[in-house]
Structure formats: C-alpha cells, structure tokens
Design a protein that fits this description.
CATH architecture of the largest domain: 2-Layer Sandwich
Distance between the termini: 58 Å
Number of domains: 3
CATH superfamily of the largest domain: Aldehyde oxidase/xanthine dehydrogenase, molybdopterin binding domain
Strand content: 15-25%
Radius of gyration: 27 Å
Strand order of the largest sheet: 3-5-1-12-9-10-11
Largest sheet: 7 strands, mixed
Structural class: alpha+beta
C-alpha cells in the first residue's frame, strides 16, 4: 500500500477506549481483585545471594491458628536439572521456589497464606532456616574469574578461552554469528579501533508491582487473575510448575500498569494457586517494591570488547565483538537480541560475534524493551562517533555512508526487507535541531546515535460479533500495555470504513479467545492488527452475502462503501449496518468474523536521537537540555500513541544512561526502592520532541512495523557522545552518574 494512501481511521488519534476508566480510577488492575473469604500470601525470601539450604524448620507454623496454608518446593512439580540452554518464554521451577540452593538475594524459599498481609508477614519470622553461605558473583567478570563459586555445579566446562575456573563453569551457551571472515578482513583494514565497554544491571521500573490472585475451586478448576504481558504464557508456565494440564487453568488478564518486558514470567501465580488449593480459599499475593527489584527479572549487566576496521574515508570493512551478558541465576540473557542489533544498521561484509550467556548471583534476567539492543548498540554507536571524529567526517554522514539497505544481510542471517536506516539519518541531518547553535555556556555538548531492534510478531487471534445496533465487539488475545486495543480497533474499523467508536475492543481470557503470543517486541499492532484486518474482511464478506440474500441478487451486484451496502443495479436500494443488524435473525443468524494467524515480515525498526547536555564540572551532574527522538514506525496507526511510545522509550534510555543501576555490595542490591533506584522524573527531563518517520512495510496491509522497542536504544550512546563534546573525554561505562563523570573529569585534569 502506497504511503500516499488516504485512510479514514488509520493515522488519526481518537480517544482510547480504556481512557475514561483509567483516568477516573475505575480500571481494575491485578491487585484490585477481591473475592469472598480471600486470604493473603507472602513469600519468605533468601537473605543471601548464594547459599546452600541445609535445613528448613516450619514446625512453629503447623498448628499456628493464623497459618492457613504453606507451600515449599516439595509442592511443585519435579524440577528438571538446570542445563546451559536458555528457556525463553518458560519459567524455571527452581526460580519459583528454591530447593537445595538459593542463588540470589530475594530468591523465594516458601510462601504462607493468612487472613491479612500483616499476619502472613509476621508468620514468616517463625520459619527457621540454616544456610551454608557461599561466595557470590555480581557481574560477568567476577562470575568467570578463576576463584568464583560455581552456581550450577552440574554444568560441564567448555574449551572456551574464558572458561578458566578449575572448579567448573558459570558460562552457559556461547552464540556465534559470522559473515565472511572478520579476522582476515581486519588484517587488511587501513585502521583498527578496539574498545571495551561495561554496563550495569537495570530494571524496567514499571509502576504497578507484580501480583497474582488464584482460586482453586472444588471442581479442580484453577482461575488466576493477574497483570501480565501474556496470559497464555502465564497459564502454560503455571501448568508446568504445578504439573497439571493447562486445560485445567483459566487466566483472566487484568489491566497492566507497565511491564516493558518485565511481566512475562510467572512469579507469584503458582504460589497463590497452591496456597488456594491447600486452604480451599482464594489467595491474593502482591510484591513490595523491594521485592520487585530484588526478585523479578531485570535486564543484563555486560562486558563487551569491540574491534572495527575502517579506512580514511570512514568506510567500515570488518567488525568483531565479544559480548558477555549477565543472565542472572539461570541462563537466558538476551544474547541473540544483542547480536541481532549490534552491527545491523551498517553494511559490513565481514563480521564475527561471540555472545556469552553468563550466570551470576542476581535475579534471572528477563526482557526489557528491545532486549539486548541497548547494551550492544551503546558500544558500537559510541565507536561510530569516535571513528567519525578520527577521520573528520560528520557522524550523520558516516552512518549514511555505511548504512544497511534493502537486501543487506545481517550477522544473524536475516536479509533486510524495507528498512529505514537511511531515512532516519537523513531526517536527523535535515532537522533544525542538528544545525542550531548549542546553548550558551561551557561544558555543553550535542550527541547523536542510531538504534535498532528486530521486532517480533507471533500467533494472534481475533473474534468479532456484529451487535444489534450495527456496531461490533472485538475480542483479541493480546494484552493491552500501550493502547493496542484502540490501534487494533482502528485497523478493524478501517476495513469496514466505520468510526472506531463503533468498535468495542476487549481482551479475552484464555478460555474465550484463541492462543495468542505475548505482548512484546513491538508485535501487537503488527500481528493482532493483521488478525483484525482479516477478521474485518470476513465480516465484510458476510455482510455482502446478507445484502445479496435480502435483495435476492448475486453478490457481484453488491458494493460496500463507508459502512453502507448498495445494489449496483438499483441506486435506490441501500442498507446501513444498523439496518442489516436488525435483520440478522431473519437472514441466517449472527454475523461473527474471526482470524487466527501467525504472520511473518514484521521488519526491524530504526530510531535515532539528537541530545544536548550540560555537564557541571564541579559535581559531574549531567543536565539534559534538549532531545529530538526520531523513529521509523512503518505506519503510525494512532500517532498520539506512537509519540507517547517514542517519548517513553527515550526517557527510559536516558535513565539507563545517566543513573539507573543495581548498586551491589556483598552480593546484595542496596538501592532497592524508588527513592534510591533513580528513574527519571519530569524534573529530570525536558519535553522530548518525537519525530515520526513512516517507511511503509509492504508485508502488512497497513504498512505497520512496530514502535515500542528501538526508541530506548539511541539515548545511551547519544548522551555519551554529547558528554564527550562537552568535556573532551569519552565514556565507556554506564551509568554516567555524577560520581563517574567527576572521576573522568579529574582524570583528564
């Protein structure tokens, strides 16, 4: 579909269907669930980052009147031995409750249900546990050192050069990606640059804490209410942890107060389920903020060594990367996401990437907006800016010179379709922000960076019913985390040429709608919008058949326009949707459309930033002065939502760059509250100016690519570039907090 195509609904920004409930406080989130006789569950968590559990004494609880139920690891399905292979999309049973060892501070050991949260909390103090405390590792370099304690003692060592611990290994799988021969190509390079980079563990920082309510009824049916990014995934994970069929479980999705990839895993739901079965009553569990930070999945900290070859014109001919990403206590760091992004914006014929999945004594990592991409692209984009300075080429022009295009093969094997790398950089070059004078004063700098994320799709289901007034219900399987109900409804409405207000979208539970993969990877507008498109086509076909039946004519004589059916041979004959709806039962019964699909061709998304900063040389504090955020989204279905996604992702990237980190001491996180874990607020940021770029995706009926992921990537390197231009010193580690910048400034002096 041409970019000049005129749409009736798409490209508009209507009021979101869920907006009124959310702004008036009527929307129901997971923790709002209340049931008759409901109990409250609390989790006893490890005080140590790494220790053997020698004994657990719960004798004081067995006859305590306030203790209604207890769950330990013995109540879960047998846990398979932890192998090196990451289990993407699946929960680790021993991460739900520890068995023989605790592997991070906050690791769940057991759970208790009582009549109130306070009573349950007090009961935890009656449990006596004896530990054998072991040495812990808080980052990848500690984990692979010669004297680190081994986290999973059944793992076999490899012949890898970094596998130097004589007692075992903390290195999981090593993913290798190759194009051509990077080693030989680097030997022929006119110039070579090599740098090391380090980043700290960061959390998604969603506002709504993790929660789950379960009711195991006497008929042996289990119902779960939770705030999750994928209720089908929660259903299947709970079934695996409990060792019961998934058909026995219904998961009802509630509204979700943020997730950004962090609400894909089942943490509390299996525990609430067993506590409910044992007590015979529904059980609600909610984490505190400290529990969220210490016990749910953040994204990886990392160490990287990057080597690039280039000539005096800035043309890059070869690149190598060693990427070591923290997995937390169980394997599954976003190595593939990092590898898919690291060199992808550029056409480099010879590439070699070694990606290491390394376990540490931290919570098991999970996805965070463009998983892996911010880490790897912080490194490469910083080096691109450095190469530009060395060869004397404008950093935007250098990126355009080396830009990947349609047909370029990425290191992960994907051949690019229609991509927007050049379009994004040309938009930066032509934007007034790039050429305007810097703000007055010393220690002021401007930086740029490009970002990429491959985006995801997956299985999706949509069902629609025509209602008696001619409007339509629209039931989808994708959890709405960023306004997707409205964006999907818009695509449905576009096909039927009706106002989106005449579509009533809702999220179906696991018994109501067909299986749908998780909300993540910027996939919902693409996959579920695709399903809505086909569902609307199905409805439209049925409407034409009904009109032909009513007028006793061939379907070929029926035309459809703007929600009205016309008889092509008799201009006086026409039927509105309301009129057809009134004749449903006389003409064959209800009209229901459906689609169940697994579409491909989502294409990756490119984003870029121009960021101005001021550095205080006395304190090291970085002030963000101006931000312009660019992104190729394919087609902006709802421009208002798209701008919000760009602004939100950019804000998170700025937080990652400046001050967010797991501050670890003796294996424990010391900043486990929002008072100390500093996410950006409105006081820290200027208005972020979003610039929407639309490079149509021919693989989608409306040109959609996705918008939620790649915008978090560019702030990391853009700010480091701006800081360099402000103080004349490059930054190779994150976060760039006042202490680290002060140290760099003093080193310069």
């Amino acid at each position: 579909m041409s970019s000049e195509t005129k749409f009736k609904v798409i490209g508009k920004s209507p009021v979101r269907h869920d907006g009124t409930d959310k702004v008036t406080g009527r929307a129901l989130y997971g923790a709002d669930m209340n049931l008759p006789g409901m109990l409250y569950g609390k989790v006893l968590r490890s005080p140590h980052p790494h220790a053997r559990i020698k004994s657990i004494d719960i004798s004081k609880l067995k006859d305590h009147p306030d203790c209604k139920a207890i769950v330990t690891s013995n109540d879960l399905a047998p846990s398979p031995e932890v192998t090196k292979e990451p289990l993407y999309g699946q929960v680790r049973i021993t991460n739900v409750l520890a068995a023989d060892k605790v592997l991070y501070k906050g690791h769940p050991i057991l759970a208790i249900a009582s009549d109130s949260p306070d009573a349950a909390e007090e009961l935890l103090s009656l449990v006596d546990i004896e530990f054998e405390v072991l040495k812990s590792s808080s980052n990848v370099e500690e984990a692979i050192s010669k004297d680190s304690d081994i986290i999973h003692e059944n793992w076999e060592k490899t012949k890898d050069a970094y596998d130097v611990n004589p007692n075992g290994t903390n290195i999981g799988t090593v993913e290798v990606y190759k194009l051509g021969d990077a080693t030989e190509a680097l030997k022929k390079s006119e110039h070579i640059i090599e740098r090391e980079f380090r980043t700290k563990t960061v959390h998604q920082g969603y506002i709504e804490p993790t929660n789950g309510t379960a009711w195991w009824r006497p008929n042996d049916r289990l119902t779960i209410w939770c705030s999750s990014q994928g209720h089908f995934g929660i259903r299947d994970s709970v079934a695996m942890v409990l060792g019961i069929p998934s058909s026995q479980i219904t998961v009802i999705p509630m509204e979700i107060g943020g997730g950004f990839g962090g609400k894909l895993s089942a943490y509390l739901e299996p525990l609430a389920a067993i506590l409910s079965k044992k007590s015979g009553l529904p059980v609600k569990m909610t984490m505190s903020r400290s529990e969220v930070l210490e016990s749910t999945g953040p994204t990886s900290g990392s160490y990287q060594k990057i080597t690039m070859g280039y000539n005096s014109k800035g043309e890059i001919n070869a690149a190598k990367a060693i990427m070591m990403l923290e997995a937390g206590a169980f394997p599954g760091a976003p190595v593939s996401g990092a590898a898919s992004a690291i060199f992808s914006p550029y056409e480099i014929n010879d590439v070699h990437i070694d990606g290491y999945d390394i376990v540490t004594n931290k919570p098991k990592t999970t996805a965070y907006r463009a998983p892996g991409s911010p880490i790897s692209m912080f490194a490469v984009e910083s080096m691109i800016n450095e190469i530009a300075e060395i060869v004397g080429v404008d950093p935007v022009e250098l990126r355009i010179i080396n830009a990947a295009k349609k047909g370029t093969r990425r290191a992960d094997g994907v051949i690019n379709g229609t991509i927007g790398a050049v379009d994004v950089m040309e938009s930066i070059r032509n934007h007034p922000h790039y050429s305007m004078p810097l703000p007055e004063g010393e220690f002021v700098g401007r930086g740029i960076s490009l970002g990429f994320c491959r985006n995801n799709a997956g299985v999706s289901s949509v069902v629609s019913n025509m209602l008696t007034d001619g409007s339509f219900s629209l039931t989808e399987g994708s959890v709405d985390i960023g306004g997707s109900r409205t964006a999907v409804a818009q695509q449905f409405a576009e096909v039927l040429e009706i106002p989106v207000e005449n579509v009533i979208p809702q999220i179906g539970d696991t018994d109501t709608i067909g299986y749908t993969s998780v909300t993540g990877g910027s996939g919902v507008a693409f996959k579920t919008g695709f399903a809505a498109y086909h569902t609307a086509k199905d409805i439209k076909s049925q409407l034409i058949k009904r009109a032909a039946l009513i007028w006793d004519t061939s379907e070929k004589n029926i035309t459809y326009k703007d929600g009205v059916l016309y008889h092509s041979n008799d201009p006086e004959l026409k039927l509105s949707l309301k009129e057809i709806a009134g004749l449903l039962f006389e003409t064959g019964g209800p009209i229901t459309g459906k689609s169940h699909i697994n579409p491909a061709g989502q294409e990756g998304s490119y984003a870029a930033n121009i960021i101005d900063v001021r550095v205080d040389p006395n304190t090291g504090k970085i002030e963000i002065l101006k931000v312009s955020a660019f992104q190729d989204v394919g087609r902006a279905i709802h421009p208002g939502y798209v701008e919000g996604q760009i602004q939100g992702g950019t804000a998170q990237g700025i937080g990652w760059a400046l001050n967010e980190e797991y501050f670890m001491s003796e294996g424990s996180m010391k900043n486990n509250s929002f008072l100390d874990y500093r996410i950006p607020t409105s006081l820290d940021l200027p208005m972020i100016d979003p610039i929407i770029i639309e490079v149509n995706n021919p693989n989608h009926p409306f040109g959609v690519k996705g918008v939620g992921e790649s915008n978090i990537v560019p702030p990391l390197a853009a700010i480091s570039h701006a800081v360099f231009n402000a103080i004349g010193k490059r930054v190779y580690e994150l976060p760039m907090n006042p202490e680290s910048i002060s140290r760099i400034i003093n080193e310069k002096l």
